[in-house]
């Protein structure tokens, strides 16, 4: 897992897995089978930091540190903040 995202059910998925699932038009979450009522993806910063710490602790075994992803700005939110 490189970019953990939490969905409205509280379940965390990797962004590279959940984005295509939602984009494919699925109407439920893959693990819980709960209805997909909200497709908002919230970065799970705590889990990301834990993954980074584990990568750093295991770098002697050849594990590479994952980078901190930059979240794209939502244009509508930027406009709302500026107005």
Automatic annotation (TrEMBL):
Domain U-box: 1-61
Keyword vocabulary terms for this entry: Transferase, Ubl conjugation pathway
Short name of one Pfam family: U-box
Catalyzed reactions per annotation: S-ubiquitinyl-[E2 ubiquitin-conjugating enzyme]-L-cysteine + [acceptor protein]-L-lysine = [E2 ubiquitin-conjugating enzyme]-L-cysteine + N(6)-ubiquitinyl-[acceptor protein]-L-lysine
Function: Functions as an E3 ubiquitin ligase.
Parts of the chain that traverse the membrane: none
This enzyme's EC code(s): 2.3.2.27
Protein name: U-box domain-containing protein
Gene Ontology terms, MF aspect: ubiquitin protein ligase activity
GO biological process, alphabetically ordered: protein ubiquitination
Pathway annotation: Protein modification; protein ubiquitination
Source taxon at top rank: Eukaryota
InterPro entries referenced in this protein's UniProt entry, alphabetically: PUB22/23/24-like, Ubox_domain, Znf_RING/FYVE/PHD
Transferase listed as a keyword: yes
Top EC class of this enzyme: transferase
